[in-house]
Each structure stands twice: as C-alpha cells, then as structure tokens.
Amino acid sequence: MSPDELEVLEAEPTSLGLICLQQRGHPSDPSSLVTEITLDHEFLMSSHSTVSEEALAAEGLALCSGERLSVLVGGLGLGFTARACLRDPRVERLEVVEFLQPVLRWHAEGRVPLGRELHGDARFHARRGDVYAELAEPGRARFDAILVDVDHSPDESLGSSSHSFHTVPGLRAAHEHLRPGGVLGIWSYAESPRFSAALGEVFGRTHTRRLDFHNPVIEHAEINWLYFGLRQPPAGPA
Nearest-CA neighbor of 132 among 103, 161, 104? Predict the structure, then answer.
C-alpha cells in the first residue's frame, strides 16, 4: 500500500463525532503500514509520529520520585503514552481512562499495533470513562502521576466536560488526586499562557516544555507544549 492509499478499517459514530480507524502505506517502508485515528475526518493521531505522546510520559515520570508508582493516563488513543509509561520499571499500576468506546474495543481486539502488547502487561488497566469528570470529583491522593492527552489544547477542547479542568478550581480538584510529590502533566498542541498561570497558582512548582520536532505526517517542523504541575510534599517540622 502506498502513502497515498487509504483504507478505513472502522468507522463509528460517537457523541463527539464520527471516529475512524484507518491505515495507509508507510512513506519510507513499503512493507509496513501507518495507523491513524480521525474524529469527524479531523486528524487526531498517527503511529508515524509519536514523539509528543511518549515525551509526556517520559518527562512526567522523570519528575516523580520513589518506587511502585501508580499512574493515571487520560486518553488511550493509539497507546503510545501508555507504552512509554510501562517502560518505566517503577510503574506498578497504570490506569487508562478513555472516553470513546470504539478505541477501547480496537485495542482489546488487537486492531491497533500496540493493542496486544498493552493488554499483555498485567500492570495495564483500561476502562471507559471521562477523565475530566473523574478528576473533578473529591480526590483520594492515590496517583503518583496523572497524564492527560485528550484535548487539542487548554483553549481548544473536544468536549464540554473539559472546560472547568483547565481553570484554577478544576486544577485544584485534580491536585487532590495526587499523592504528595506527584505530577500532573498535560499535552497541548499550542502554548497557553492563561493555563500556565492557572497551573502555577495551584501547584506553585511547575515545569513547561516546548517540544520542537519534525512531524513526518505533515512533513514539516511542529511545536507542541507539555505542562507539568508538581504537588509539594508536606513541610517537615520547623
């Protein structure tokens, strides 16, 4: 199959629009295929460009100290953030919350490249849910890292449930789901000074990473943004 040929493997209506799983030929390797997901024919992700998904996991976990980490990932997609988390031997349990049921089914049925690999790891647990709604509930401080890759950016959401998450009250609620020393990480395709300020107000200690890389899918340089907030451990005795 050539890069110009496209095969739609699955197409299913959802509350967010028509989601499609599709494949095309790899531009530099005719023997392999590129897997893509689109929503209402708008490109979401590709197995040919996974730099930012993997960086979200690697950099978020690098900010975590300790062992036996419990990690929550918002958004399963093609699974590259989840796989990058599982590459860290300190991760004891990985929970992935995915809003779109077809994506969960594609993984469970092995329709996507990483489906069988992820399901073969006993630390991996994927379920249907709305990560924003869950993080708005009272927190039990049970995660060492929460990594969210769901919206295009804090200023351009895919659904209404995310609107409050990117505000100071929403971030305060998410903060309570982290253990002391835990990390909240958010992927964005665009810079958001407003969100950066809100993150700083809630967490105090933050880290922003501008990620410059060549995206072979669109054949030019791309900039993504990774935002991290670190929950401070309790102060020791004076």
Answer: 161
Find residue 70's DSSP bridge partners. 93
pLDDT per position as a tens digit, 117-162: 999 999 999 999 999 999 999 988 899 999 999 988 898 776 655 6
What pLDDT does residue 49 have?
85
Kindly report the CATH number that applies to the domain delimited by 49-230: 3.40.50.150
The pLDDT of residue 32: 78
Distance (Å, whole) CA 161 – CA 171: 14
Question: What is the value of pTM for the model shown?
Answer: 0.92
pLDDT tens digits for 35-79?
999 999 888 899 988 999 999 999 999 999 889 999 999 999 999
Which structure tokens are listed for 83?
A: 């796989």
Residues 228 and 184: beta-carbon distance below 8 Å: yes
Angle at 193 between CA 195 and CA 75, to 5 degrees: 40
